[in-house]
Amino acid sequence: MQYNLSFELTAFAFLSFICVKYFGSRKFPDKKNTHFGIFITLAWASIAFKLICCYAIKHAQQIPPWMNNAIFELQFMLQYLTLFFLTNYVLMICGLWNKSSMSFILVHLILAVVLILMIAANSFTNWLFYFDEDLVYHKGYSYGLYTVLLCLSLALDSLLCIWNHKRLGQLQFLMVPTLSAMVLASLAIQRFYPDMLLTGFAFTMGTMLLFLDIQNPGNEQDFLTKAYSRERLSRFTQDLISAKRSMPLLYVDIYGMSMFNKSFGEENGNILLMKVASLLESLCPKALLFRYSGDSFLLLVPDVRSLDTAKVKLYDALERDFNLGFASIRLQLKLFTFTAMDKESSSESLARTLELAIKAMKDRPVNVIEHVSDFMVAKSHKSREIERALRSALDSDAIEAYFQPVIDTSTGKVVAAEALARIEDSMMGIIQPNEFIPVAEETGLIGKLGLQMARNVCIFLAKSKLDLKWISLNLSVADCMNPSYGKNLLFILRSYKIDPSRIVLEITETMAMLEEALPDNLRNLSQLGFRLAIDDFGTEYANMDSVLRLPFSLVKLDRSVVNLGTSLDRELIMSKMVGAFEDLGLDAVAEGIESADMVAMAKATGVRYMQGFYFASPLEPSRFLHYLDARRPADEV
Ligand code: C2E
Ligand code: CA
Ligand code: CA
Q: Does the pTM exceed 0.70?
């Protein structure tokens, strides 16, 4: 038969192009990429052999019969192996290339054994093809079955992709089904036009789609520096951690990158990034370089010894001028190493540890390679534990409010209280705010925590019917910056019929120095009827300006200021301060009163209120009520 080869020749040209492009570009060295490489090579060889077969059919007489047989058998084998590696690849991109997906792999292997045996045995069975006495090529009677099995393999690949569409993402899961549909359509057309060879072309077009979309090497790389992307890093580290493996890493941040961009322009900034990337790549031949952020990289090296060698080479490079082409500079890098990847539970937990290390590195010197210690790892793990406890407490409405009494200095009576948050976790016990407040701030849970605390205070006030002058709540920066915080708070208060004038909102001195939306928001809170206190006064610069500028009615003198006041001079300073506040219409609270001496000093300075362990530490609601009951006049100061 005279075949029309134009489609197959085009397919061959396309596949050659894909192979050159794929093997010519840098790829992440993983199994998925290797199997894709094998797959396209086999597909290329299979089409090449198909063309040779067409030639052999036409010139059968001139070719020895054994060679004819061998060429055809090889063509069948290549065709099947192409599909075999396509399925391997699909199993990998679907995340099924592991022990837990043994059933899929088994079906795939059984199919492979059946087909390979069928092809290998053809010389004896003539099931797939044979040559008659005139050396004319004929399809064997199992050829149909063979085609059905190949189609089945493609259908299985498509089903796996559709089934795992979430993992593959939008449209990407359609690539393999599209390839299969094109091959099936070409088979159907071939039934009506047997001289028209189309399957190779359809297969190649499908492969082209795969190559351009899922398998494009550019997807995993940073366009500028050719380092692998952050996304690739998280998938790779996740795979390593799941396999309980570890790779030492070196973190490299270009110090003052934005300054460099401003001074030399972004184009030269790009050159700096590229040069640093190639310097880092040259430190260890087997290393994997990832772009971690705009101006930072992660170098993963095979073992600790390679890390040590890389460090020596890097120190050496840092001592010399760094040539950028247009200028020579002294590189300034923030650096650290980390070798405990196997102690992490996931790529996310690794990212958190790295973030913590990056933060800790902020005030470390440049060009010194620090090591992320076990202490830091433990701290990062603890913060994750705290986050778990915090989330679980927030979800189950279990944030607790403890109350610390505020005493009127002149009468010695409890007149108010400060609400302080606590978490009681089944695993970690009672967690203190200095542990969970920073975590709540980092994770954006602080707003929710603040509202739960407000609700707790309302419930307490509504139930206990105490006639305290106020209960104070501590505001977070997020609350201060949120223009609707006041309205939300008022909404909660109204549902418990509590007047806002009974609530004091404490804002730390550090927060009061924030400019931006703060003054408007605080004035708004004051207009809604809340009273405002400036907390921890004296921990910054005892900033009178913010006290005067903002509508405060209470000043809480920090423990450190009150402690200063125990000597006579300091007592004088403190009484002048208290006097000045009173003249301005602000009452002062001395915080951190721990002893009878401090009580005496506080009285002498004329401070209106006192708070501290000497009277009581923060107490859970029932104990606080008990404390109020038990405070007989004789105990009062
Ligand atoms: P703060 O607002 O300055 O609260 C006073 C802290 O000093 C409390 O610590 C209290 O237990 C402690 N304290 C009281 N009397 C004494 C004393 O005599 N000596 C000493 N050494 N300490 C004393 P706590 O409860 O651990 O809270 C720490 C910080 O956490 C608070 O400092 C506040 O800034 C923050 N915080 C607590 N609860 C909340 C909350 O619900 N929301 C927000 N945003 N922050 C909160
Ligand atoms: Ca406070
Ligand atoms: Ca305070």
A: no
